[in-house]
Structure formats: structure tokens, C-alpha cells
Amino acid sequence: MASYTLGELAERYNATVKGDPTVVLTGVTTLEAGGAGKIAFLSNVKYRPLLKTTTAEAVIVGSEDLADGLNLLVAKDPYRTFALISQLFNPTSHPREGIDPRAYLGEEVVLGEGVTIMAGAYVEDGADIGARAVIYPGVYLGRDVSVGEDTVIYPNVTVREGCKIGARVILQANCVIGSDGFGFAPGADGHVKIPQVGIVRIEDDVEIGALTSIDRAAMGETVVGEGTKIDNLVQLAHNVKVGRHCFLVSQAGVAGSTEIGDFVIIAAQGGVGGHLKVGDGARIAARAGVAQSLEAGRQVAGFPAIEHREWLKSVMAFSRTPELRRSVKAMERRIKELEAALLTAEKRGAGND
Q1: Do 202 and 155 lie in a common domain?
Q2: What domain range is 343 assigned to?
């Protein structure tokens, strides 16, 4: 079991110690669970009261949470520092390298040094698998697929013909890369399928979640940019281009030929229509429906998507609808009373004449 002192972690991750730097840590925990030899973290103010009760040996905090009586690792970004320390204590492990004789390898397959291919994997002719890549059981790699070094492809993933997977990519179980795009020419006699002859290109350091589907281009490429992280059950249609370091959260969907910029966030069940452009740094809230292109930095919510602040105001107004309805009815009654009184006064004035 790996162990590090609090001082060693501070030096490794450019943090400072408040408390005992010699305390020995063997793993990570939560504030609530605590435990001897464990380090927890605080990055959300609503959990701040747990600092008073946690039994964790040490806690990663920001400079605004310097609680007394605790061994603290004070970091600029506690959440990120926790993630790095968690990786340190929980390194990814895979079965030993080598080609299981129960895997199928086609002709002219190129294998880098230290590749692992497990039983039941099926690698078609002309595939190229980079050094130290790990291919789990049930994976299908189509003809002329390329896989970069240190990439991990978990069970039952399908990567269809010609698609390109970069280095240090993680493909979670049952995702599909390079399925046919939804392309049909409709007509009175039925729908004619348009051959999808392009590919999918996944750049370096991308992670793609379980059961996510990324369609091959009709022509050209569907692209997922460097460092982008895609959750489970996401759909990217043909010829979509996603930029660098984006987050696409569960059940998000992007329609065909749309271009997503760098550092964009699409929250759960967010949808983006086809043939649009979403600028760098835009944020699309959960369940938002984007029907028009968005400039860089826009934050939108609702359907159809509007500025996030305006959407919040609309939601607040909607919650007051019963109250507003009562107020309007009261005003209508009062207006009728005033109109009736005015009409009576006018009649009296006419009688006096």
C-alpha cells in the first residue's frame, strides 16, 4: 500500500501545510466517512460544517477554510488537488500485457510495444494499435482503425472502419465510434440511405462515456477535440466538430454538421440543433434547447434557449403565476367597478342637464 506524508503531498502538488507535515496518509476519503490515515477535501461551502466533525487524518482546503485543530493541505484548487492525490493513491491497473490467443487479429495488423489485447477482442485487417494500448474483451476494431499509444478501450466498444483514436484516450464500455450517420433522402417512394463514407477522429486525452454514440461523417470527419470529456449516453451526429477541453454531460445531443468551440459545456440533456456554431466557452444549461448559433462566452438555458439570467427571471415569474393570476382578476374586477361608477356618474350628470 502506497503511503505519503502530508509534507510530501504538499511539495508534490504545490500546496502548503497547516498542522503536522509528518502525518502519514494511505488513501482518500470524504469528510463524512473520515478515517485514520485518510485525506479528505472541502470544495463546496455547504459541507463546511463537517470540518468540525470529520475524523479524516487531513483535509485539503482553500485558503478561506483554515479550520483549527485539523491537519490541512492548503491548495489553490482543492478539488483539482484532491483529484490528483486520488490518482496517486488509486493508479489505474490493467491485466498484464500480451496478446491473448483467444483474440482475433486480421492481416497486416500493426502492434506497438507492450500492447494488451484480451480474449474475445476482434481486430480487423490493417488496424494499427499504438504502444501500451489496452484492448478489453469484446472490443471490435474495424478495418484500418488506428489507436494511439496508452489508450484504453473497455469491453464491448465498437470502433468502425477507418476511424482514428488518439493517444491516452479512454473509451468506456459499450460506446460506439463510427456508426452510420442518420442520412436519408426522403421521397414519395420511401427513404433512400445516403452512404456514410467519412470517419470519426478522436484527438488525444479524450474520454468517452459508456453507451455514447459518435456517428461517422457522411463525407470528411466527425471530430472530438483534444482533452474533451464526454459522459454516458451522449449522441454526436455526423460531421459534428467538438473543440478542445469541452464537457458534454449525460444525454446531451448535438445534431449534424454543428461546430462546438473550445471549453464549451453542454449540461445533461442539453441539445444543439444542426448546422450551428457554438463559440468558445459557451455554457448550455441542463435540458436547454439551442436552435440558433451562440457567440463565445454565452450562457443559455431553457427552450428555446435564452440568456441564463433571463431564463432565471422567467422561471421566478412562472412560479408566481397563480399569484399574478389572482392579482389580474382582482384588477379586472376593480376596473369593472370603476367603469360602472363612472357610467353612473355620467348618467347623473346628463340628468341634471
Answers
A1: yes
A2: 320-353
* Euclidean distance between CA atoms 166 and 155, whole angstroms: 18
Annotated active-site residue 238? The verdict is yes
Q: Please give the DSSP secondary-structure letter assigned to residue 17.
A: E
Report yes or no on 261 lying in a domain: yes
Question: Nearest Cα to 62, choosing from 50, 37, 47, 79?
Answer: 79
Please give the tally of structural domains in the chain.
Answer: 3
The whole-angstrom separation of Cα 142 and Cα 124 is: 5
pTM: predicted TM-score of the whole model, two decimal places: 0.85
Catalytic residue among 94, 191, 238, 308: 238
184 and 260 in a single domain? The answer is yes
- Whether residues 40 and 112 fall in one domain: no
For residue 180, the one-letter residue type is D
Adjacency order of strands within the sheet including 241-242: 110-111, 128-129, 146-147, 164-165, 199-202, 221-224, 241-242, 259-260, 277-278
CA atoms within 13 A on the CB side of 17: 17
- What's the grid cell of residue 156? 464491448
Residue 160: name the closest of 212, 216, 120, 112 by CA. Answer: 216
Same domain membership, residue 178 and residue 68: no
Please state, in angstroms and rounded to a whole number, the distance separating the CA atoms of residues 41 and 58: 8
Q: How confident is the model at residue 318 (pLDDT cuts 50, 70, 90)?
A: confident
Give the CATH number, domain containing residue 12. 3.40.1390.10
Are 37 and 112 part of one and the same domain?
Answer: no
pLDDT the model gives residue 240: 98
- Rg value, the chain, Cα: 29
The H or E element that residue 247 is part of is strand 247-248
Give me the pLDDT at residue 346, please: 79
The verdict on residue 315 lying in a domain is no
Whether 269 and 188 share a structural domain: yes
The reply to whether 154 and 300 lie within a common domain is yes
**Residue 64 CB coordination number (10 Å):** 9
**CA nearest to 219, candidates 193, 195, 235:** 195
Residue 16 scores a pLDDT above 80: yes
